[in-house]
Structures are given as C-alpha cells and as structure tokens.
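Q: What would this chain look like folded?
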Amino acid sequence: MASAIQNQFDSLRQRLHQSQLGGFWRWWTAELAAMLPASWQERVRHAQRVLLLQLNDKSLSLTLQEGAKGERVESFDLDQDLSLQRQQIADLLAERELDEVPRCLLLGESMVLHKQLQMPQAAEANLHQALAFEMDRHTPFQADQVYFDQQVLERDKERGQLHLELVVAPREPVDDLITTLVDRGLAPTAMDVVAENLPLGLNMLPAEQRHRIPNRKARLNLLLAAVALVVLAGVMAQSLWLRESQIAAVEAAIDEVRIEARRVQNIRAQIEDASEAAGFMFKRRAENRPTVMVLAEVTRIMPDDTYLDRLRIWEGNVQMQGKSDNAQRLIEQVNDSPMMEKAGFRGSTRLDTGTQKEVFDINAAIVTP
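A: My prediction, written as structure tokens:
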C-alpha cells in the first residue's frame, strides 16, 4: 500500500516537473535564490548536494556535486576485500557527513541509447507509462528489459505534439553495477547519464528501486514545525472562541430577519424556476411539430402498396423502414410533402423474396414550423 502511494506521488511529481507550472516554479525559485545573501546561497547548495557514483571494470569513484561544482571525494579499487571496502566507504561517508546525501549512479554514453521521437501532447500526463507501452516500437527492447527516462525538448501546441528524447539502458549490465554498489553500502537513489562530464538531469531508476535515505535533520525540522503549527493553532482557536462568543449575541438578534430573508429567496427561486420551465416548454412546442401531425403526414403520403415496419420520430428527423413495390418513388413523395425535406435512403434497397417487395430505409428532416 505504501509503495503504491509512493509510486503515485513520484508520478505526480514527475508530471509537475515536466509541466509549464514546474518550469515556472524552477525559474521563480532560481530568481529568489539569486537574491539571497551569499552565505544563505551556500547553505542552499550544501543542502542540495548529490554524491555521484561512477563505475568501470576496476574502480569506483565518488564525486560530490554541489551546485555547478564537482569535488572528487575518493576512488576505490574493486579488487579489494568486499567487507573491508564496505567499512571504508561507511567510515568515509560518516566522516564527510555524506551518509544522508542522495546517491546517483552515472552511466557512460556507451551504455545508453538515445532516440528523439514525437508523442501526442495529450499523453504528457502519463508520458512514462505511454513510452513503456510503446518501447518495442522505438527500441529493440521490451519495457521490462531496460531502464529508461525521457526529456521533453519542445512542446508544439499548434500540432499538439511533444518533441522528446528517450534515453534507454539495458537492464542486465546496469543491474551488475547496482549490485556492485549495494554490496558496498551505496544503494543508489537515482541513475543518470553523464555527457560532457555533466549529468543530463534524468532519473532512469524506477521508483520501487530507489533507495530511501532517511534525513534525520529534516525529520527534526518537520517535528519542530509541527509543534509550532500546533501552538499557533491553539492561539488562533482561543482567539476565535473569544470572537465567536461576542458575535453570538449579535447573531441571535438577526436570526429572525435572516430566516425571513431565506423564505423570500426560496419563493423567488420557485417563481423563477416555474417561469423558466413554462418558457422552455413553450419554446419546445414552437420549435417542433407535434408527433401526431408527423404521423398523420406519413400516413397520408405513403402509397397503398407500401407499409412500414418501423417509424422513428426524434429531434427534427423521421426514419421510415418498411417494404414497397417501388421504393424509389417514395423519396419524391416525401420531399413533396410540406412537412418533410432532404429525404434519402440509408443504405441500398433490397428485394424481399417472401413478399417480392423492395425493403427500404429512408431518413428525412422535419421542416421547422
């Protein structure tokens, strides 16, 4: 249950990030951040640090990204003893206060496939699911064989199209990298692609595989904020109670007037509703001929060698289905009627072998009186 809720939350956050509102929010927060004092900007960048993890055949390198700056933290040889290396990494993270920093696995360009494609703009709300459904059309893989993410490059509102870039990585080699990191206590929270020594800003790791790192400082801040909200709510409740006790005396004096005003409003609403209903019925009668008149006219114009199996009259139209010795002449007779026009066959006529009559289906419009 909690996993499903988290998946829904991550999907909603991704949609918001890719929407115009998300773009405006990023621009607005960037402008506000630029107006902060230098010391505050440094604290914001410090809180947004990311530990970048890069693997090759022989080594694991850790880089701390803080804003646009990257600082090489350490490099480990993968041939070392696993338990010893795991302890070394844990000690390093604790010493540098990086144990609560998000970790992002960086894939090289040689491990991913880029493809630019177009999707209907209506699919943006569920873009990730739509790409997973059509993965075998755009790549040689099924959706369960790859990790993938997308970037919206352009929104063509005139054509209702999204121009986006799909980035795909096969699961098998990437799973080996993730296992290597997990064995060393570095389960990743995100997975990105490095291009020109910079991450692309993707997260190809599915929500259910993203490692959750508890932030103790954030929890403490949330607890303090909750306490402050409770105290504030208590003060506001007391103030409202005092105010309501003063207002109660005034409201008691005007209750009778208020009830009388509501009665007047109800009567007025009933009168307006009755007037609108009467006007609607009068308008409907004026715009449409009575069904009995249309029925009489159909009876008048039908020849003696013709009979109807089905007659339908609705919203200014008449549909007649039946059999006749000469169905073609019925079109002229219906069009000659002052009550009907635009008569035509619905499909072709055919011969009924039992009665040797032509089976017809005619539709005509009723002339507005």
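The CA atoms of residues 106 and 192 lie 5 Å apart.
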